[in-house]
Amino acid sequence: MPSFDVSSVGFAVLDILGYPVSRIPEGGHADFIEQIRMTVAGTAAATAVDCAILGLNTRMVSTVGTDEMGDFLINKMNLFGLDTALVRRDDSVQTSATILPVRPNGERPALHVPGTAATFDVAEEDMEAALDANIIHIGGTGLLQTFDGVNTLNFMQKAKALGRITTFDLIQATPETTALVLPLLSYIDYFIPSIEEASAMAGLASPIEVARWFKERGVKNVILTMGSEGVYVDPDQGLPFSLAAHDIEVVDTTGCGDSFSAGVIVGLAKGWTLQESVRFAGAVAAKVAMGLGSDGKLISFDDTLHAMNSWPLKTLKAPC
Fold first, then answer.
1. Strand-strand pairing, 231-234 and 13-19
2. Distance in angstroms (rounded) separating the CA atoms of residues 90 and 114
3. DSSP conformation class of 246
4. What domain range is 82 assigned to?
5. What's the confidence (pLDDT) of residue 320?
6. For residues 255 and 97, what is the distance between their CA atoms, to the nearest angstrom?
7. Residue 20, SS3?
8. pLDDT, tens digit, for every residue of 131-178?
9. Measured between alpha carbons, how far apart are the two ends of the chain, in Å?
10. pTM of the entire structure?
Protein backbone atom coordinates (compact mmCIF):
# COMPACT_ATOMS: atom_id res chain seq x y z
CA MET A 1 0.00 0.00 0.00
CA PRO A 2 1.43 3.45 -0.93
CA SER A 3 2.81 5.60 1.88
CA PHE A 4 1.15 8.88 0.79
CA ASP A 5 -2.30 10.01 -0.29
CA VAL A 6 -0.83 12.20 -3.02
CA SER A 7 2.53 12.91 -4.58
CA SER A 8 2.59 16.36 -6.21
CA VAL A 9 5.22 16.55 -8.91
CA GLY A 10 6.56 19.56 -10.79
CA PHE A 11 6.40 23.33 -10.60
CA ALA A 12 7.25 25.10 -7.34
CA VAL A 13 7.70 28.88 -7.22
CA LEU A 14 8.03 31.62 -4.65
CA ASP A 15 5.29 34.23 -5.15
CA ILE A 16 5.77 37.76 -3.84
CA LEU A 17 2.36 39.44 -3.94
CA GLY A 18 1.25 43.01 -3.36
CA TYR A 19 -2.39 44.13 -3.01
CA PRO A 20 -4.07 46.23 -4.24
CA VAL A 21 -1.93 47.59 -7.07
CA SER A 22 -3.77 49.85 -9.51
CA ARG A 23 -0.65 51.30 -11.16
CA ILE A 24 3.13 51.15 -11.18
CA PRO A 25 4.47 54.48 -9.84
CA GLU A 26 6.51 56.56 -12.26
CA GLY A 27 10.25 57.01 -11.81
CA GLY A 28 11.41 56.43 -8.27
CA HIS A 29 8.10 57.30 -6.62
CA ALA A 30 6.21 55.00 -4.23
CA ASP A 31 2.58 54.05 -3.70
CA PHE A 32 1.27 52.63 -0.43
CA ILE A 33 -0.69 49.37 -0.54
CA GLU A 34 -2.47 47.23 2.04
CA GLN A 35 -0.53 43.97 1.99
CA ILE A 36 2.63 42.24 0.75
CA ARG A 37 2.97 38.49 1.16
CA MET A 38 5.31 35.63 0.19
CA THR A 39 3.77 32.23 -0.52
CA VAL A 40 4.52 28.73 -1.75
CA ALA A 41 3.02 28.65 -5.23
CA GLY A 42 3.09 26.77 -8.51
CA THR A 43 0.89 24.23 -10.22
CA ALA A 44 2.39 21.41 -8.15
CA ALA A 45 3.50 23.15 -4.94
CA ALA A 46 0.36 25.23 -4.34
CA THR A 47 -1.78 22.16 -4.97
CA ALA A 48 0.37 20.19 -2.52
CA VAL A 49 0.08 22.86 0.18
CA ASP A 50 -3.69 23.00 -0.20
CA CYS A 51 -3.95 19.19 -0.09
CA ALA A 52 -1.99 19.25 3.18
CA ILE A 53 -4.19 22.00 4.66
CA LEU A 54 -7.21 19.85 3.76
CA GLY A 55 -5.79 16.87 5.61
CA LEU A 56 -4.05 14.69 3.02
CA ASN A 57 -0.69 13.04 3.62
CA THR A 58 1.22 14.80 0.87
CA ARG A 59 4.67 14.44 -0.69
CA MET A 60 6.21 17.25 -2.75
CA VAL A 61 8.53 16.39 -5.64
CA SER A 62 10.31 19.41 -7.11
CA THR A 63 13.53 21.41 -7.30
CA VAL A 64 14.47 24.73 -5.69
CA GLY A 65 17.69 26.72 -5.59
CA THR A 66 20.30 26.82 -2.86
CA ASP A 67 19.36 30.45 -2.20
CA GLU A 68 17.25 32.03 0.56
CA MET A 69 14.14 31.72 -1.60
CA GLY A 70 14.61 27.97 -1.76
CA ASP A 71 15.07 27.93 2.01
CA PHE A 72 11.77 29.77 2.42
CA LEU A 73 9.86 27.36 0.18
CA ILE A 74 11.13 24.24 1.93
CA ASN A 75 10.64 25.68 5.43
CA LYS A 76 7.12 26.84 4.59
CA MET A 77 6.18 23.51 3.01
CA ASN A 78 7.43 21.73 6.11
CA LEU A 79 5.30 24.00 8.31
CA PHE A 80 2.26 22.93 6.29
CA GLY A 81 3.17 19.30 6.96
CA LEU A 82 4.44 18.40 3.51
CA ASP A 83 7.06 15.71 3.04
CA THR A 84 9.93 17.51 1.25
CA ALA A 85 12.47 14.68 1.10
CA LEU A 86 12.22 14.78 -2.71
CA VAL A 87 12.54 18.55 -3.07
CA ARG A 88 16.05 18.72 -4.49
CA ARG A 89 18.41 21.75 -4.44
CA ASP A 90 20.11 23.13 -7.56
CA ASP A 91 22.98 25.61 -7.18
CA SER A 92 23.22 26.39 -10.91
CA VAL A 93 20.18 28.72 -11.06
CA GLN A 94 18.02 30.69 -8.67
CA THR A 95 14.75 29.43 -7.23
CA SER A 96 11.79 30.04 -9.52
CA ALA A 97 10.10 33.27 -8.40
CA THR A 98 7.30 35.61 -9.43
CA ILE A 99 6.35 39.17 -8.51
CA LEU A 100 2.57 39.65 -8.64
CA PRO A 101 1.07 43.16 -8.41
CA VAL A 102 -2.52 42.10 -7.73
CA ARG A 103 -5.13 44.48 -9.13
CA PRO A 104 -8.15 45.58 -7.08
CA ASN A 105 -10.39 43.22 -9.12
CA GLY A 106 -8.21 40.20 -8.31
CA GLU A 107 -6.36 39.97 -11.62
CA ARG A 108 -2.61 39.54 -11.36
CA PRO A 109 -0.07 40.35 -14.07
CA ALA A 110 3.22 38.58 -13.42
CA LEU A 111 6.96 39.16 -13.59
CA HIS A 112 8.56 35.72 -13.57
CA VAL A 113 12.02 34.14 -13.37
CA PRO A 114 11.81 30.45 -14.48
CA GLY A 115 14.93 29.43 -12.52
CA THR A 116 14.70 25.91 -11.11
CA ALA A 117 11.41 25.20 -12.91
CA ALA A 118 13.49 24.75 -16.06
CA THR A 119 15.97 22.35 -14.41
CA PHE A 120 13.53 20.15 -12.48
CA ASP A 121 13.47 16.43 -13.24
CA VAL A 122 12.71 13.24 -11.32
CA ALA A 123 16.01 11.44 -10.89
CA GLU A 124 16.00 7.69 -11.44
CA GLU A 125 16.96 7.09 -7.81
CA ASP A 126 13.90 9.14 -6.73
CA MET A 127 11.43 7.46 -9.08
CA GLU A 128 10.10 4.78 -6.74
CA ALA A 129 9.59 7.22 -3.87
CA ALA A 130 7.99 9.84 -6.14
CA LEU A 131 5.41 7.25 -7.20
CA ASP A 132 4.72 6.06 -3.65
CA ALA A 133 1.23 7.59 -3.41
CA ASN A 134 -2.31 6.64 -4.33
CA ILE A 135 -2.72 9.78 -6.43
CA ILE A 136 0.01 11.28 -8.61
CA HIS A 137 -0.52 14.93 -9.47
CA ILE A 138 1.64 16.47 -12.19
CA GLY A 139 1.58 20.25 -12.40
CA GLY A 140 3.51 22.73 -14.53
CA THR A 141 3.87 21.22 -17.98
CA GLY A 142 4.86 24.07 -20.27
CA LEU A 143 7.44 25.55 -17.86
CA LEU A 144 9.29 22.37 -16.86
CA GLN A 145 11.85 22.51 -19.64
CA THR A 146 13.88 19.45 -18.58
CA PHE A 147 10.98 17.30 -17.36
CA ASP A 148 8.51 18.16 -20.13
CA GLY A 149 8.12 15.71 -22.99
CA VAL A 150 9.70 12.26 -22.89
CA ASN A 151 10.59 12.42 -19.18
CA THR A 152 7.03 13.26 -18.19
CA LEU A 153 5.71 10.51 -20.44
CA ASN A 154 8.07 7.97 -18.89
CA PHE A 155 7.00 9.04 -15.40
CA MET A 156 3.29 8.83 -16.18
CA GLN A 157 3.66 5.43 -17.82
CA LYS A 158 5.30 4.16 -14.63
CA ALA A 159 2.49 5.68 -12.55
CA LYS A 160 -0.21 3.93 -14.54
CA ALA A 161 1.71 0.65 -14.57
CA LEU A 162 1.54 0.80 -10.76
CA GLY A 163 -2.20 1.46 -10.88
CA ARG A 164 -1.95 5.04 -9.59
CA ILE A 165 -4.66 7.64 -10.15
CA THR A 166 -3.23 10.51 -12.19
CA THR A 167 -4.31 14.16 -12.10
CA PHE A 168 -2.79 16.73 -14.40
CA ASP A 169 -2.61 20.51 -14.77
CA LEU A 170 -0.36 22.80 -16.78
CA ILE A 171 0.54 26.47 -16.81
CA GLN A 172 0.63 29.27 -19.35
CA ALA A 173 -0.40 26.80 -22.06
CA THR A 174 -0.21 27.90 -25.68
CA PRO A 175 -0.82 26.10 -28.97
CA GLU A 176 2.86 25.08 -28.80
CA THR A 177 2.17 23.21 -25.55
CA THR A 178 -0.09 20.81 -27.41
CA ALA A 179 2.80 18.78 -28.81
CA LEU A 180 4.15 18.22 -25.28
CA VAL A 181 0.79 17.11 -23.92
CA LEU A 182 -0.64 14.93 -26.71
CA PRO A 183 1.49 11.84 -25.89
CA LEU A 184 0.44 12.11 -22.22
CA LEU A 185 -3.32 12.28 -22.65
CA SER A 186 -4.09 8.56 -22.54
CA TYR A 187 -2.29 8.34 -19.17
CA ILE A 188 -4.31 11.16 -17.56
CA ASP A 189 -7.28 10.15 -15.42
CA TYR A 190 -8.31 13.68 -14.44
CA PHE A 191 -7.27 16.62 -16.65
CA ILE A 192 -7.92 19.94 -14.83
CA PRO A 193 -6.88 22.93 -16.99
CA SER A 194 -8.48 26.34 -17.27
CA ILE A 195 -10.79 26.80 -20.24
CA GLU A 196 -8.37 29.43 -21.61
CA GLU A 197 -5.44 27.00 -21.61
CA ALA A 198 -7.45 24.07 -22.93
CA SER A 199 -8.99 26.23 -25.67
CA ALA A 200 -5.57 27.46 -26.77
CA MET A 201 -4.34 23.88 -27.06
CA ALA A 202 -7.39 22.47 -28.83
CA GLY A 203 -7.96 25.48 -31.06
CA LEU A 204 -11.63 25.53 -30.04
CA ALA A 205 -13.74 27.90 -27.94
CA SER A 206 -16.75 25.94 -26.72
CA PRO A 207 -16.20 24.03 -23.42
CA ILE A 208 -18.26 21.16 -24.83
CA GLU A 209 -16.09 20.91 -27.94
CA VAL A 210 -12.84 21.44 -26.02
CA ALA A 211 -13.64 18.68 -23.53
CA ARG A 212 -14.66 16.33 -26.33
CA TRP A 213 -11.39 17.09 -28.17
CA PHE A 214 -9.32 15.94 -25.20
CA LYS A 215 -11.46 12.89 -24.50
CA GLU A 216 -11.17 11.77 -28.11
CA ARG A 217 -7.41 11.81 -27.58
CA GLY A 218 -7.42 9.62 -24.49
CA VAL A 219 -8.19 11.66 -21.36
CA LYS A 220 -10.66 9.85 -19.11
CA ASN A 221 -12.18 12.80 -17.25
CA VAL A 222 -11.94 16.41 -18.45
CA ILE A 223 -12.57 19.14 -15.85
CA LEU A 224 -12.49 22.67 -17.29
CA THR A 225 -12.28 25.49 -14.75
CA MET A 226 -13.98 28.66 -15.98
CA GLY A 227 -13.47 31.19 -13.21
CA SER A 228 -16.63 33.01 -12.19
CA GLU A 229 -18.62 30.86 -14.66
CA GLY A 230 -17.91 27.71 -12.67
CA VAL A 231 -16.74 24.41 -14.12
CA TYR A 232 -17.63 22.10 -17.00
CA VAL A 233 -16.99 18.37 -16.62
CA ASP A 234 -17.03 15.62 -19.24
CA PRO A 235 -16.62 12.44 -17.17
CA ASP A 236 -15.49 8.96 -18.07
CA GLN A 237 -18.79 7.59 -16.79
CA GLY A 238 -22.14 9.35 -17.13
CA LEU A 239 -23.24 12.56 -18.79
CA PRO A 240 -21.34 15.87 -18.86
CA PHE A 241 -22.35 18.41 -16.22
CA SER A 242 -21.70 21.98 -15.11
CA LEU A 243 -21.49 23.45 -11.62
CA ALA A 244 -21.71 27.12 -10.65
CA ALA A 245 -19.04 29.07 -8.79
CA HIS A 246 -19.66 30.47 -5.33
CA ASP A 247 -20.86 34.07 -5.17
CA ILE A 248 -18.00 35.66 -3.21
CA GLU A 249 -15.97 38.85 -3.08
CA VAL A 250 -12.74 38.07 -4.94
CA VAL A 251 -9.48 39.46 -3.58
CA ASP A 252 -6.91 37.54 -5.61
CA THR A 253 -7.23 34.81 -8.23
CA THR A 254 -3.65 33.56 -7.72
CA GLY A 255 -3.65 29.81 -7.17
CA CYS A 256 -7.37 29.32 -7.71
CA GLY A 257 -6.82 26.67 -10.38
CA ASP A 258 -4.17 24.96 -8.25
CA SER A 259 -6.50 24.91 -5.25
CA PHE A 260 -9.32 23.56 -7.40
CA SER A 261 -7.06 20.64 -8.34
CA ALA A 262 -6.41 20.08 -4.63
CA GLY A 263 -10.14 19.94 -3.97
CA VAL A 264 -10.64 17.33 -6.68
CA ILE A 265 -7.75 15.29 -5.29
CA VAL A 266 -9.20 15.41 -1.77
CA GLY A 267 -12.55 14.18 -3.06
CA LEU A 268 -10.90 11.33 -4.96
CA ALA A 269 -8.86 10.37 -1.89
CA LYS A 270 -12.07 10.18 0.14
CA GLY A 271 -13.81 8.02 -2.46
CA TRP A 272 -16.41 10.64 -3.37
CA THR A 273 -18.16 10.77 -6.72
CA LEU A 274 -16.67 13.09 -9.31
CA GLN A 275 -19.58 15.52 -8.94
CA GLU A 276 -19.07 15.66 -5.15
CA SER A 277 -15.34 16.14 -5.63
CA VAL A 278 -15.80 18.97 -8.13
CA ARG A 279 -18.37 20.65 -5.90
CA PHE A 280 -15.91 20.58 -3.00
CA ALA A 281 -13.15 21.86 -5.28
CA GLY A 282 -15.27 24.90 -6.08
CA ALA A 283 -15.46 25.75 -2.38
CA VAL A 284 -11.69 25.28 -2.01
CA ALA A 285 -11.07 27.71 -4.89
CA ALA A 286 -13.52 30.21 -3.39
CA LYS A 287 -11.70 30.13 -0.03
CA VAL A 288 -8.41 30.81 -1.83
CA ALA A 289 -9.85 33.64 -3.96
CA MET A 290 -11.00 35.48 -0.83
CA GLY A 291 -7.43 36.06 0.38
CA LEU A 292 -4.00 36.96 -0.95
CA GLY A 293 -1.86 34.18 -2.37
CA SER A 294 -2.25 30.55 -3.32
CA ASP A 295 -3.65 29.44 0.05
CA GLY A 296 -5.80 32.55 0.56
CA LYS A 297 -8.33 31.95 3.35
CA LEU A 298 -8.09 28.16 3.22
CA ILE A 299 -8.05 26.88 6.82
CA SER A 300 -9.15 23.26 7.04
CA PHE A 301 -11.28 20.51 5.54
CA ASP A 302 -14.18 21.08 7.95
CA ASP A 303 -14.23 24.83 7.36
CA THR A 304 -14.26 24.30 3.59
CA LEU A 305 -16.98 21.66 3.79
CA HIS A 306 -19.12 24.13 5.75
CA ALA A 307 -18.52 26.78 3.07
CA MET A 308 -19.50 24.33 0.34
CA ASN A 309 -22.80 23.62 2.05
CA SER A 310 -23.67 27.16 3.09
CA TRP A 311 -22.23 29.75 0.71
CA PRO A 312 -24.44 31.03 -2.12
CA LEU A 313 -23.79 30.13 -5.75
CA LYS A 314 -23.80 32.29 -8.85
CA THR A 315 -26.44 31.71 -11.50
CA LEU A 316 -25.30 28.85 -13.67
CA LYS A 317 -24.96 29.57 -17.38
CA ALA A 318 -25.39 26.68 -19.77
CA PRO A 319 -22.16 25.92 -21.70
CA CYS A 320 -22.26 26.21 -25.45
1. unpaired
2. 13
3. B
4. 4-12+41-97+114-310
5. 63
6. 14
7. coil
8. 999 999 999 999 999 999 999 999 999 999 999 999 999 988 888 889
9. 43
10. 0.97
